[in-house]
Specification:
7-stranded mixed sheet; 12 strands; alpha+beta
């Protein structure tokens, strides 16, 4: 196969992958705006890799589509990332939702009016800072479809690590990953309450939050 045919085949494969990813987001949902903060005490070169069965539909910085997706950047104090001469507050990606579903076992059921107060109360307990909590609430309070009630599930950390593997070099001193699943409902559901274990944050800390709609 000559180089022209190889290039054409590669373009076709990439186009099909992107199409399938978009179909997944439109019809099956997606994992929306996971953002990863890197809090270093001094400037350090960092390589971060996400490995998942899903297709990445968007990432920043860069344009990763296939897994594993790798980013290399300079991490400055206060989670300032420098990549190709540009500064970013965090690493950001989104994925399609073709692969294994997450288990929805524990969470809260709230009316629409109680959604933001509940997130403001629970997210810090899950390990997010005030700034991170505000960013999460600002994003998801406008992203969710209108509904009388919402069931909000806390995704188990072990499942997150298995299905969306995050590797960081150098190894962080602490890693916090918070994913919530939102299910719009028309009535209040009785859910098993989550058992929240406080997450320590020290040294070179990596913090991620994200979510999806079911």
């Amino acid at each position: 196969m000559n180089s022209k045919k190889i290039l054409t085949a590669a373009i076709v494969v990439a186009a099909v992958a992107i199409f399938l990813a978009l179909v997944g987001v439109l019809f099956l949902g997606g994992i929306y705006k996971p953002v990863i903060y890197f809090y270093s005490e001094r400037p350090i070169a960092v390589t971060a890799t996400i490995t998942t069965d899903e297709l990445l539909t968007h990432s920043e910085p860069g344009s990763n589509v296939f897994s594993p997706a790798t980013w290399t950047f300079l991490a400055l104090p206060n989670s300032v990332l420098v990549s190709h001469g540009k500064q970013y507050p965090y690493l950001f990606y989104e994925t399609s939702y073709f692969g294994k579903r997450f288990s929805l076992n524990e969470g809260w059921s709230v009316e629409r009016s109680e959604l933001i107060p509940l997130l403001n109360e629970k997210l810090p307990l899950l390990g997010l800072s005030k700034t991170e909590t505000n960013a999460f609430v600002e994003y998801w309070s406008t992203r969710l479809p209108e509904s009388k009630y919402y069931s909000i599930y806390v995704i188990d950390r072990k499942e997150i690590d298995e299905k969306i593997k995050l590797d960081v070099n150098p190894t962080p001193d602490s890693v916090i990953r918070v994913f919530l699943a939102f299910k719009p409902t028309q009535s209040n559901e009785v859910l098993k309450l989550p058992r929240i274990t406080p997450s320590a944050r020290n040294g070179f800390a990596v913090v991620e939050w994200g979510g999806f709609i079911v």
